[in-house]
């Protein structure tokens, strides 16, 4: 496993992205006992916020370098190529998930799955549902993260040149966020209720990640928030407030309604996830600040056995995410058959083990492709050097092989 992990990256990013993928798998299984210990029960931020922020960081880092070397047009074309890949992955996952849930509902003689996962439109209006799904206007439950990512990357392709003027990028993003929350802007959906994850609100978190990931050319200093004790205290206070709000909002709403002032109760009720409420945004940024300053980039434990499965999954995020959605539904069916400790143990060991295995196979395949490209380049260079020069012509020298930077 260790040989498959690429060490030329910030392993903190890969570790937390892999951890987010594991949390998504756990949280998508109703009745899973491990769901009681995931962050959504304790802070106003969860795996989705982590995933979006780190996606922005990776985009700013990777595509920012491509833009600075080869220009905005080429970099934007690379981003749109990734958008297409994500769109195809979403449609493939939609087909697999719909077939999986529909078959299970028929075999178990229950329509609860279709209603709860919002797949019943395929039974009522299958052709219209398929069209709306292709247009991303219809997103069943658990299938709304990739459409969000598709739109955010498409917005990034247009806004990419603004990374060179970081504060202009963040200012424009913050203005769009404020207008979205003030005027209720959203993208259209088939139901008329807007997107489950409103890209016009979530884009601020994504572009903050882009600004943190971008490395200016010529050795310029990237955006960074320096260590300050006051900021540490502020971050901890914000997280503490989020813990209290989470408990009241999701577990003790009766206390909030009966004992808190009406204005406070209304504020708590308004903490939404759809358009990234400021409390959720602040909680995610507080967690990021603390992690960035208290977890060194070269921390030894990131290269240890315990972290390796999460790092490997984080480096192969797309296939692991898609497989995790399908496996989580199988885990749900299994736990509904029996929720005793033996089945809980089986689901929570077998599911992640399969995800790690998939990540390992994907990493191995990518490593073989890179090795093949390097071998082909070396063979071409050797063949060029072996060609005899014409009389009086300069002897061509092979260029040094360029290391893979993907």
From TrEMBL:
High-level lineage: Bacteria, Pseudomonadati, Pseudomonadota, Alphaproteobacteria, Acetobacterales
User: Hey, what's the signal peptide range on this chain?
Assistant: none
List, alphabetically, the InterPro entries matched.
Answer: UCP028704_OpgC
| Keywords from the UniProt entry | Membrane, Transmembrane, Transmembrane helix
Q: Which residues cross the membrane?
A: 12-30, 50-67, 79-103, 141-160, 167-184, 196-214, 230-251, 279-296, 317-335, 341-365
Listed name of the protein: Membrane protein
């Amino acid at each position: 496993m260790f040989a498959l992990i690429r060490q030329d990256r910030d392993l903190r990013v890969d570790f937390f992205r892999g951890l987010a993928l594991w949390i998504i798998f756990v949280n998508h299984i109703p009745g899973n006992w491990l769901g009681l210990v995931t962050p959504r029960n304790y802070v106003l931020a969860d795996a989705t916020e982590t995933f979006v922020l780190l996606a922005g960081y990776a985009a700013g880092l990777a595509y920012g370098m491509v833009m600075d070397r080869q220009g905005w047009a080429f970099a934007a074309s690379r981003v749109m190529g990734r958008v297409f890949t994500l769109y195809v992955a979403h449609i493939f996952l939609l087909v697999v998930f719909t077939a999986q849930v529909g078959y299970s509902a028929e075999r178990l003689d229950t329509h609860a799955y279709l209603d709860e996962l919002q797949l019943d439109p395929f039974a009522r209006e299958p052709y219209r549902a398929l069209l709306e799904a292709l247009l991303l206007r219809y997103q069943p439950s658990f299938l709304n993260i990739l459409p969000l990512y598709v739109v955010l990357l498409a917005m990034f392709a247009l806004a990419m040149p603004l990374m060179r003027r970081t504060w202009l990028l963040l200012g424009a993003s913050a203005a769009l966020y404020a207008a979205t929350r003030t005027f209720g802007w959203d993208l259209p959906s088939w139901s008329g209720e807007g997107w489950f994850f409103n890209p016009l609100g979530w884009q601020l978190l994504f572009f903050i990640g882009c600004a943190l990931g971008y490395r200016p050319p010529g050795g310029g200093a990237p955006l960074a928030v320096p260590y300050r004790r006051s900021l540490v205290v502020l971050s901890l206070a914000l997280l503490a407030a989020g813990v209290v709000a989470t408990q009241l909002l999701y577990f003790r709403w009766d206390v909030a309604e009966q004992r808190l002032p009406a204005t406070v109760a209304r504020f708590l009720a308004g903490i939404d996830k759809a358009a990234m409420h400021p409390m959720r945004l602040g909680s995610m940024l507080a967690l990021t600040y603390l992690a960035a300053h208290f977890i060194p980039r070269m921390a030894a434990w990131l290269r240890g056995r315990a972290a390796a499965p999460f790092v490997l999954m984080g480096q192969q995020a797309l296939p692991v995410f898609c497989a995790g959605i399908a496996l989580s539904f199988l885990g749900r069916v299994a736990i509904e058959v029996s929720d005793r400790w033996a089945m809980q143990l089986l689901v929570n060991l077998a599911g992640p083990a399969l995800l790690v295995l998939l990540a390992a196979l994907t990493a191995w395949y990518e490593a073989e492709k890179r090795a093949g490209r390097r071998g082909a380049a070396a063979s071409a260079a050797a063949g060029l050097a072996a060609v005899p020069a014409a009389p009086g012509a300069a002897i061509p020298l092979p260029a040094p092989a360029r290391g893979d930077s993907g």
